[in-house]
Amino acid sequence: MIAQDLRPLPKAAMNIESDASDPLADAPLLVRFEEVCKTYDERSWVVDNLHLDIRQGEFLSLLGPSGSGKTTTLMMLAGFDAPDRGRILMDGADISRLPAYRRDMGVVFQSYALFPHMSVAQNVAFPLNLRKVPAAETRERVREALALARLEGFEDRQPGQLSGGQQQRVALARALVYRPRMLLMDEPLGALDKALREHMQLELKAIHKQLGITFIYVTHDQDEAMTLSDRVAVFNEGRIAQIAAPQTLYNRPATRFVANFLGETNLLEGRVISNAGGFATLRLEEDGSLHHARCADTTLAAGDSAALAIRPENLRLASGDEPAVAARVIDSIFHGAHCRLRLHMAGGSELSMTYNPGSLGRPAPLPGEAVILGVPPQLAMILR
Amino acid sequence: MSAIALPPSLPVVARKDRAALWRAYGLLAPLVLFLLLTFVGPIGTLLWRAVADNELPQALPTTARALSAWDGRSAPDETLFKPFVADLREASPRDLAALARRLAYETPALRSLLATAKREVAGLDGSVAAMGALDQRWLDNATWQTFKRAAGPVGSYHLLSAVDIKHDYQQGLVNKDEAGLYRSILARTFSIAAITTLVCVLLAFPLCVFLDRRTPRTRNLLLLMILLPFWTSILVRTTAWMVLLQDGGMVNALLMALGWVDSPVHLLYNRFGVILALVHVMLPFMVFPLLAAMAGCNRLLVQAAYSMGARPLRVFFQVYLPQVLPGLAAGALMVFIVTLGFYITPALLGGPADQMISFYIAQFTTGTLNWGLASALGLVLLVATTLLYLVQAHLARRGAEGVKR
pLDDT tens for residues B108-120? Predict the structure, then answer.
């Protein structure tokens, strides 16, 4: 494959809506997965015909439930696994069979993988020693890397003497000290507690900004992916369900899976009446009401079954002239910043709605009360 | 292992808990009793035999006291002869026979010398002239040194003999005349054990790497095949090797049928046959600790090293090997120590030059009835083994501080 062929694939083919909020849309391509397949048991594909373009300098998260193929994708990128079909290109060259030690990538593992028989400084110096960097420069670069990871003064400690967060910083310093092309992270914060995890997220983001190299981050934590990333690739059953900037993923999910995996979504089943110009009309099975809402999937035709998707925070209590559904309040829960209502529709479908108690403009609904919920067409989605 | 070690907290054992503790120990009582009766007792007795030297004090009690007073350097005189003659008159033939056997270990000629003295004891008065007239050797310093070394009741004669050294009262510790007989046997024992260990390591390492990479199902099946010979009687296995390896055996028949050799190759009654059978017996002892170490090895460290640009050889020596080294050392030590004490296999498959120390211990115990030397050789083996174990334990502890978390 020659370099000029490496234009990003047409976005329609990848089921991506064009996205004006993506700041790295024009960044040059660094890595491309082409029709990559991987199986471990010869029966099912762990990674199934994967297309993925990684851009220079971006922070890309691979998000998905366990077994969705995200870690396998990362392992193939790192060179620990080879694809069974397809190929992986880096700067236009096929690296599918290139051994890991020739790929020039930094890898950070969930369990740190520090060498237990070496001190912190020796761990960080290890990749430099492999590259025969002179001793004085090694000392300087180890010092810089430890400063970047905010670990000054820990040089002579043994890994076993450090907390989980400190060990992960050492791993990070060790993976960055030789200035790799990319930094690959496999759930690096998974073993840390919540407060430390959030703190480390901010630091990771700052380090990414400071260094400008490409970060690939595997996680099953949607909040983490949204907080950190320029783009998030949502994996499901070995394929990418959607890849986009976090706001786009949240506001314009392409599939039910994405809508449910990122945040909470009410899904109401129905049948498509019409679909044109980015909007579709759907008749709900529940009560036969007609709903007009955004629809990015041009393959949905009249008569197809689909779902109306609306986030709990986008449902409105005061009904205007917009489409609406009738429901009965089952339960009301006070969360402090917001309140949550659990509602049942007449046919048994369950709905969830959140609202800000201060800006409701009417008395809070009580359990047992019948309400009309407005579904704003601009905020609802029709998904296959 | 964390270097920040918390100070060990003292266990708070209440009186009630203490009673429970003693009841728990009580459950061990039958085992402790069994071990005392069948292991500690016999081994202790055996070790006592290595230093006990009571034939002479039994037969010639006053001579034994006189010999202790004698410095061993001056010429023997009447201070020794008089009690000797007096004791000789009283001594029972049975005690004298035991003493003669004991003295003959060192100087065979003393057996007849002593017998003659007993026969002629009526004409002896304990003077220098009478002893000289009986036999000039009675005036010889060397004769009485032999007596002094056997004067007991505790002596170092057998222990020193086991490493071919003699305590000469004029020259100090000197090498015995037999040109390092037992030292060479000991060296041979160690060399056979070392070669066996080395071959086991070389065979087991690739095998364990292979097994480690299989699925648990396949691995267990293959382990069963390694264990199968382990469950067969060692005698059966050894005889099976004899059937296979003898000049007219299956291996030679096959080699000749293939036209690789014209006449049978001697595979039996030499070092080759011994090592082959020993490796066959000992391989499981190597495989299991090594496989456990490999299974417990952190593969992520290997991947991390690769990702940082380390080449396979470096990863193997700097990252993989340090992790499996404790298992490798444990297996190697086990093979080495157990092989040191092997008896049946070399006795059946080896030639005279391939016998290990256990063979000689057995020979002295059941053949020539020199229990003192047999025990001393056993003690030497025990001490060597214990030293090796201590060295390995020290290395393992140092290794554990570095390698294991």
Answer: 888 998 888 888 8
Residue for token pair 């570095």 = B402
**Which residue(s) pair with A341 in the sheet?**
A332, A353
* Total beta-carbon pairs less than 8 A apart between chain A and chain B: 76
Cα distance between residue B348 and residue B366, in whole Å: 17
Instruction: Provide the chain A residues 160-189 that lie in CB contact (below 8 A) with chain B.
Output: 160-161, 171, 174-175, 178, 184
pLDDT, residue A24, reads 63
Closest in A79, A117, A171 to B402, CB measured: A117
Q: Determine, for residues A115 and B319 on separate chains, whether the beta-carbon distance falls below 8 Å.
A: yes
B243 and B224 inside one domain? yes
Does residue B104 belong to the interface with chain A, where contact is any CB pair within 8 Å? no
Structural domain includes residue A115: no
Chain A contact set for B303 (CB, 8 A): 78, 80, 100, 107, 109, 113
CB under 8 A, 24+ apart: contacts of B223-226: B223/B287, B223/B291, B226/B283, B226/B284, B226/B287
A190, A222, A256 - which closes a domain: A256
Domain that holds residue B116: 55-154
Would you tell me the crossing angle of helices B181-212 and B321-340 to the nearest 10 degrees?
140
Shortest CA distance from A123: residue in chain B: B305
Are residue A15 and residue A34 in the same domain, yes or no? yes
Residue A206 sits in which domain range?
3-104+181-256
* Shortest Cα–Cα distance, A122 to chain B (Å): 13
The verdict on a CB contact (< 8 Å) between A116 and B306 is no
Question: pLDDT tens, B329-353?
Answer: 889 999 999 999 899 889 989 888 8
In a domain, A165, yes or no: no
Same domain? B39 vs B63: no
Q: Does the beta-carbon distance from A105 to B307 stay under 8 Å? A: yes
Is the sign of the CA dihedral B262, B268, B271, B276 positive or negative?
Answer: positive
Say if A51 falls within a structural domain.
yes
Both A216 and A278 in one domain: the answer is no
Q: A196 and A167 in contact (C-beta within 8 Å)? A: no
Q: How close is the nearest chain B Cα to the Cα of A86, in Å?
A: 22
* A141 shares contact with chain B (CB less than 8 Å): no
B210 and B345 both lie in a single domain: yes
User: What angle, rounded to 10 degrees, do the helices at B371-403 and B93-106 form?
Assistant: 50
Both A371 and A223 in one domain: the answer is: no
Residue from the list A103, A115, A130 with its beta carbon closest to the beta carbon of B301? A115
Same domain, B141 and B198: no
| CB atoms inside a 10 Å sphere around CB A299 | 8
Q: Write down the residue that tokens 């024992």 correspond to.
A: B189
Q: Give the total number of structural domains in chain A.
A: 2
Residue A21 sits in a domain of what CATH number? 3.40.50.300
Is A150 within the bounds of a domain?
no
Q: B323 with B341, same domain?
A: yes
Structure confidence by residue, pLDDT tens digits, B85-110 = 889 888 888 999 999 988 888 888 88
| B366 has a chain A CB within 8 A of its CB | no
What residue spans of B108-177 are helical by DSSP H?
A: 110-119, 128-134, 141-149, 157-162
Nearest to B404 among A106, A107, A116 (CB): A116
**A272 and A371 housed in the same domain:** yes
- If you search the block for the tokens 């008065």, which residue do you land on? B125
A156 touches chain B (CB under 8 A): no
For chain A, list residues with pLDDT below 50. Answer: 1-20
